[in-house]
Amino acid sequence: MTVSENDGTGASERTRSTGKVDLGRRTLLKASLSVGGVLMLGFTLPAKTASLLGAATPSPSEGEVAVTAWVRITADNQVTLIVSQAEIGQGISTTLPAILADELGADWSRVKLVTAPFSSTATAYRNPQRNWMFTGNSESVESFYELMRKTGAAAREMLTRAAAARWGVDADACRAEESVVIHPASGRRLTFGDVAGDAARLSPPEKPTLKAARDLKLIGKSLPKVDVPSKVDGSAVFGIDFRVPGMLVAAIRTPPTIGGTIKSFDDTAVRGAPGVRGVVPVLNGVAVIADTYWQARTALAAAHFDFDAGPNADLDTAALRAAYRKALEDGPWATPVNQGDAAAPLRGAVHVIRQDYENPFAAHATMEPMNCTALVTADRCEIWAPTQGQELAFVALKAVLGLRDDQITVNRTPYIGGGFGRRLLPDFVIQAALVSKAVGKPVKLIWDREEDMRHDWYRPATMLRLTASLGADGLPAALAARVVSPTILLPVFPPIATMLKEQGFDPSAMEGMMETPYDLPNRRVDFHLLTIPIPTSVMRTTGYGPNIFALESFIDELAHSVRMDPYRYRRRLLRKNPRALAVLDRAAALGGWGKPLPKGQGRGIAFADAFGTLLAQVIEVQVENRDVRVKHITSVVDCGRVLDPGIATNNIEGGAIFGLAYCKAEVTFKGGRAEQENLNRYELPYLAETPQFRTEFIAGAEQLGGVGEVSPVTVPPALANAIFTATGERIRSMPISRHGLRFA
Amino acid sequence: MTRKRNACFRVRLATGGAAALGLAFGVAFTASAQVDQLKVAEPDPRAQSEQAFRRMATVLTHPRCLNCHTRVDYPKQGDDRHRHQFRVLRGSDDRGAAAMMCSTCHQPVNNAASGVPGAPNWHLAPLRMAWEDLSVGELCRTIKDTSKNGARNIPALVEHLTGDPLVQWAWNPGGNRAPPPIGQSEFHELVRGWADSGAACPK
Amino acid sequence: MELNVNGKTLPVEVDPNTPLLWVLREQLALTGTKFGCGVAACGACTVHVNGVAVRSCSYPVSFAAGKRITTIEGLSSDRSHPLQRAWIVEQVPQCGYCQSGMLMSAAALLAVHPHPTDAQVDAAITNICRCGTYPRVRRAIHRAARGG
What we know:
Strand order of the largest sheet of chain B: 1-2
Low-confidence stretches of chain B: 1-22
Number of domains of chain A: 3
Structural class of chain A: alpha+beta
CATH architecture of the largest domain in chain A: 2-Layer Sandwich
Helix content of chain A: 25-40%
Number of strands of chain B: 4
Shape of chain A: globular
Strand content of chain B: under 5%
Largest sheet of chain A: 8 strands, mixed
Helix content of chain B: 25-40%
CATH topology of the largest domain in chain A: Aldehyde Oxidoreductase, domain 4
Radius of gyration of chain B: 18 Å
Number of helices of chain B: 9
Distance between the termini of chain B: 30 Å
Number of strands of chain A: 31
Oligomer: heterotrimer
CATH superfamily of the largest domain in chain A: Aldehyde oxidase/xanthine dehydrogenase, molybdopterin binding domain
Structural class of chain B: mainly alpha
Largest sheet of chain B: 2 strands, antiparallel
Number of helices of chain A: 18
Radius of gyration of chain A: 27 Å
CATH class of the largest domain in chain A: Alpha Beta
């Protein structure tokens, strides 16, 4: 169990980082004392770590030898590892390469990391379980863990055998560590670089021997993250910072309404503007290309557009809600879950509780707006994008450009200013490619924030109706749920179109409803796949978030209806699930459940089994004059083995704040367009609103659960439950501003 | 509307000269609602001065002014006078908190690119110059109170209201912000007229 | 015109109305300062002008003439600024996009309040972080204030 506690004064203990290279405290102390004459005792910098650099080429560069597809070694022993998964802040560019490096026996402090390309000659970096290259759905660790270990072990065996062959000794008598192969008996050493050429000629072993747990040095530790150094000195190159020689920059405007078109466009003022190199219609929009972004943007602003608002000109939030409500009442329904006999207990039952819940539209609002750099010629397309979906981009580019597989490469920039699922979509990649093709030069296309928020693929609103009949023991004898939601998975995973059509439900939008950790033998879930004109897709928490908001609020309402403590009520429902009970109990204990609170303060609890992880959260609030002050968020997490406690904690605590954002901001529509076009209208949480955190991990099983998006799942219902306890007021929708509340 | 900026404004109130003065004021306020009052007999010089301030107050209590003359520890924003976003605070010197000063975002001119309004020396009026929730009379007395108004005598007040660039910004606020209900030059004349007529305060 | 950026005087040829943000990023290739919103709402573009925090998306480059501009690249040449060291120890950044602005705001805070209270940190740091690194930002500021 690892504890990290934050009491907000900087005096808290932090999980210690251990790295491979110990620079020695004395050296650090001396060095730190000399900085500005400030005494910095006790200042331990994390040990040196690998560094995340650029994008890899499909094949090894000059002087590099590939030992497996993931490891490249130079003669002077520079080990470079390929990073398949997009670093979007979740730390995956540290964890997965560290697993590989640990198994390999590389000197982690010297390893260089480069991001994997996707091309016809670089397909090795696909998610092995999905056979598709993407980063999302909290699947990276679970999907790649074994592959990373096996690959590291395979490369280690190849290098060891190559060295052993040189020495004429048994490979088993050799060891690899710190990027060197050693024969302890004779003391001979050869670097990886010395033997890489020989190793590369060997066939990778089918079943390499993995290291014993006691021999692992990186896995399970809180490692210094490989991307932190460049993110504190401005050197990290995000997509929007990317440059290639001869590059131009483009700004784009598309019709502001959903489904709108451009009737006419007057670019007289644009073409002569300073720095402008071209004006190009792109799909439903117009791009201005110039030497600099500001020139492009300024020129674009001078253009006169006559937009046709299109078929959704009257679309507004009221109309949308009416459509949702109608579907909630009338269906029709697919019934993906029908267990036991959900109907029987409901008939003639005395104690039936029914409530409707609503989730609002949400914007991804990544801090870095959408952008992409493209170089497209008659027979080549090269992309550098901050993308989560390289393969989908590749497929889309191929279709749009009509090029062959071997003519397209999608590179991923090493740094990405937030993803949350938005960057799985290829829309901005296609635009950039078309602009480049039109001007015959490399072009970096940047969306301004307004374009970004108008043309999001929003997390959709959903509506749910939950009905339960309670038995004599107060527990639900049956639970029926109606879920109304548009698709979220289709835009990022087109192959499910058939399933949507045939089965009538979106599997991602059903997450949290398909299965339940609670003992609910009679359960039915009806799903209405709503069609709305608004583009919707996955966003951090996918279907779990909206569904669990309803479910965990409802469980609380059931508990209160029979005057049972919500924590104890959940204990009863989880009584057959000892692993879940352990998590719930620890959260209640750590969160101070049951300790008296002054009037106007309250605690709420929520539990979820999501992304392969069990999570219980207790939120404590103070509500005064409609001001909601979130004081504590306690999270207890069982994600199985914790590969990196520091990174896992970051994901849980940062994720909780992302969850608070779901309670603070929403997207509304009027006149066929989003009303919130910038961050001054879509207000996100501030540091001053941040609660204190207590986060603990329990390794309840061997499996690897995801931690990237589980914490925002339980925050909205735990918050709603806490507000109820503090005020007696039950809110069944977010954000809290709908109910006249605001965060303080 | 003809506004004769004439010597009448500089005529001091004197007993016996009231009728003539009243006529002069009548000319000055042709377009105003005071016309009806003037048709009624006996113009009262003090009442005229007070009335001038009442008109001034429609500007002073307009959001463009009141948003920075708040009585709380933050500015307000917009024609609807909501609390300034982004957790902007007054700070100990009325110029914002450290690292979040008014000048962090507000520059000496309006910024078309970002939409952020600007004027020289953008900052909050100190709390002793808070005007929120004051009656017109209280507002007047506060403005004239030299212990609160930065030791400004009447001429200095006039200078502030007619010359200070931050004050003048109200008539060029940028964006969709509504300017005050009285035009800038009319307001200047109003202020001078009020000052010249004794700077009387309504009750 | 000439700009004084991170201690160097650099000539730039640019429309004087160009926001300082874009001059830094494009003409001067200092891409550490980020574009997040363009309306001074998020703080990703925060730099120092004469030591004071300024949101450079809302600051015409013409106003920078004759003033000392400091960007994230100018905090130190080797990540040795106390805040940078604290940021590394506390492992603050996640996606990292807001962090340049966050660090510049924190530096401006410490210049005025070398040992800030939590309330002073709350008031000074209004930069938006979508990933929610705020608890570590707070810890790192206090760590830097303590001298490590």
